[in-house]
Design goal:
By secondary structure, the protein is of the alpha+beta class. It contains seven helices and four strands.
């Protein structure tokens, strides 16, 4: 079954529509609703958005292409997105990423077999003063080291093992 907005979600989008002059203002909020509920947005979902909101699919696709927080496929419960810009590289992101890959047993762009972790890259997160940095889902984490990424992964594994 593909994604469908709830009645409440549609009402919120309609309320927003009544406040703006251009329906394209609904694109980002609609994508956020979908991303938060489902974890990713497929091409089928984009067609649903076009049909439901009456906004051409290309506008959704363009926004998804611009913002790295939108996923086109299912990811792990915890998605670790490492900033790939020069500031983070110069401050040791490659070593941190290697530590994460070794600890999780996966490479960049992959998801662990238990579905708990995915790792990927992101354009600049605007957190250069805390480089190297990453997003863990939507939480920004800076001053990464091999030790801090190991602690984070171990903590998240423990939290999920106890549930």
């Amino acid at each position: 079954m593909s994604f469908e907005f709830t009645k409440d979600e549609l009402e919120r989008l309609d309320d927003l529509r009544n406040k703006v002059d251009d329906d394209r203002a609904l694109v980002l909020p609609a994508l956020w609703i979908l991303q938060r509920r489902q974890g990713f947005i497929s091409s089928e979902d984009i067609l649903y958005l076009e049909k439901t909101l009456g906004i051409r699919a290309i506008f959704f696709a363009e926004v998804m292409g611009f913002y790295s927080m939108f996923n086109e496929s299912a990811k792990g419960k915890y998605e670790l997105k490492f900033c790939k810009t020069i500031t983070c590289k110069l401050r040791g992101s490659d070593e941190v990423i290697k530590a994460a890959e070794d600890l999780l047993g996966i490479k960049m762009g992959e998801t662990t077999s238990d579905g708990l972790f995915s790792i990927g890259e992101s354009e600049c997160l605007g957190y250069c003063e805390k480089a190297p940095c990453m997003l863990c889902n939507l939480d920004q984490i800076g001053d990464l080291t091999k030790e801090s990424i190991t602690e984070l992964i171990d903590r998240l594994r423990r939290e999920n093992a106890s549930r």
